[in-house]
């Protein structure tokens, strides 16, 4: 193997030659498979295409994966038709390349567009139609749609309907729904996947299947188990939920000298048990006061009702808050979407259609579940550690309500009754480079390790959409490797996900660093490639692409 690699280095010294011949083979297969005679110049982007860098960058949402050393795909496929998706799956398999599926590109570890093996990207942004049936109070939503586009489309049809999903409008439906996304209506309506009633996917053989065609096990798996282990999600059918004409938001803050500790301590028991119409997110951040770092705790709220009712409710449940009507803002549901997304009062809902491409910070996120309230002493100890670290923050998202009523096994997302709130650890920075990345991820990792005594154990749970590579990594695709992160994300549902995977993709074509493994150990990569594609020519192309990838794309 090694002499061959050296040979290839000299044969293709950092040129596009190897990826060009891969592209020729792919194009031939793709044209045949999709029975297309149309121009494919806006569907297939080889590295030599002038648009390749901008297409690649358009949905990079984490600057950590926007560097010259980030591995790049050999081809980007941006399907316009469902048959293009089928062709992309079949032809990637034939050529022995990995296929990374990208919808909104918000994966915190860039798994939808980065791989350390030769790969293609299937970018779903063109498949984003949204069709709403008000009579049935349902909608079909293309995987490439953003949450902002979905909220906007619902608002155009009705001022008293909404959908429970994430608060960041540029998040993609494909990754968010398949991973089990949540937002500020989860105490009333559960997760997005609790309101999904049908789906359309392309399986490993390129077949297009709806719920009936795929069967209940696979339909279960793609509602929280992550789509990318099982196939390509084309669209989900969702049930819209009712929202009142008037909702209420407020923000309340306390610093340490304003008894932030009491505030957070009390929040822990109120937020997960209060009325289901009330969602109170808690942010714990560091601020600088008189040149000293201190902790500020802020509550951000959505109440599905008017200010009068909210004030009465919190006078009863959280009197220490001292909430008054003048602290509250009444608005329509769509205005609350904009408020939660940090847009200024008065911004038009049209901004929800803005895909805001090609801009991102450096991010690292981690997660935990808190199952018993942390004592005041514990919180005070935690504030000291946070001030020492100086940068990472926490987001506390209360559960309870509807989340307690849905069985842990109903969908793959198992963190239901018994979890008071989910913790997100967050650190965001703007200096490029590996050293800054090491420094900042180290800070957030230390905060995560300080929390060990306060959070769920055996397993220590994690929220799958908050992808964190430190939860474990699959190198060979084995069951044993997959179990390490699988148990944290899916607890008792992991085994059923493995069963579904074994049934629908036993050769493990749909794989990534944290995918669901099939039950039997998959064969090593090279023998898998030769089994799929046989020809020595393909293996050569593969190795050549591998060599070039690691050397030649410093200019992107
Ligand atoms: C700024 C920001 C805010 C966020 N806010 C929230 C929030 O409020 N609530 C919440 O729950 N989560 C939130 N998240 C996490 C988010 O839900 C996940 O990152 C989600 O996976 C993003 O979906 P995507 O389509 O944008 O991502 P992508 O990066 O495109 O995909 C994520 C994963 O899903 C796979 N995938 C994508 N599309 C498909 C498809 N069509 N078929 C099969 N597999 C597919 C990818 O291969 C990858 O493994 C946030 C993330 C960011 C960066
Ligand atoms: C074209 O596709 C058909 C089936 O879809 C297959 O049998 C045939 O081998 C393909 N031909 C080429 C040249 O790939
Ligand atoms: C903080 O708590 C103390 C006693 O618990 C109380 O006397 C004081 O008024 C509180 N301060 C604020 C700003 O709420
Ligand atoms: C938004 O601003 C307008 C005018 O500037 C004001 O009348 C309205 O009350 C504000 N709404 C909220 C919710 O603050
Ligand atoms: C990626 O880097 C380029 C410059 O190299 C920059 O213009 C672009 O805004 C960056 N995009 C993201 C998503 O960070
Ligand atoms: C990383 O941390 C080290 C040690 O604290 C420090 O010397 C260095 O300047 C930091 N580098 C960056 C880029 O933050």
Automatic annotation (TrEMBL):
Cofactor dependency: FAD
Check the UniProt entry and state the signal peptide residues, or none: 1-17
InterPro entries reported for this sequence: BBE, FAD-bd_PCMH, FAD-bd_PCMH-like_sf, FAD-bd_PCMH_sub1, FAD-bd_PCMH_sub2, Oxid_FAD_bind_N
Subcellular location per the Swiss-Prot or TrEMBL entry: Secreted, Cell wall
Keywords, ordered alphabetically: Cell wall, Disulfide bond, FAD, Flavoprotein, Glycoprotein, Nucleotide-binding, Oxidoreductase, Secreted, Signal
The domain of life for this entry's organism is: Eukaryota
Which part of the chain is the FAD-binding PCMH-type domain? 69-243
Gene3D superfamilies, per this entry? 3.30.465.10, 3.40.462.20, Uridine Diphospho-n-acetylenolpyruvylglucosamine Reductase, domain 2
Molecular function (GO) terms for this protein are:
FAD binding; oxidoreductase activity
PROSITE patterns linked: FAD_PCMH
Q: Which family does it belong to?
A: Belongs to the oxygen-dependent FAD-linked oxidoreductase family.
**PANTHER family this protein is in?**
OS08G0158400 PROTEIN
Name of this chain's protein:
FAD-binding PCMH-type domain-containing protein
Q: Which organism is it from?
A: Rubroshorea leprosula
Query: Taxonomic lineage of this organism?
Result: Eukaryota, Viridiplantae, Streptophyta, Embryophyta, Tracheophyta
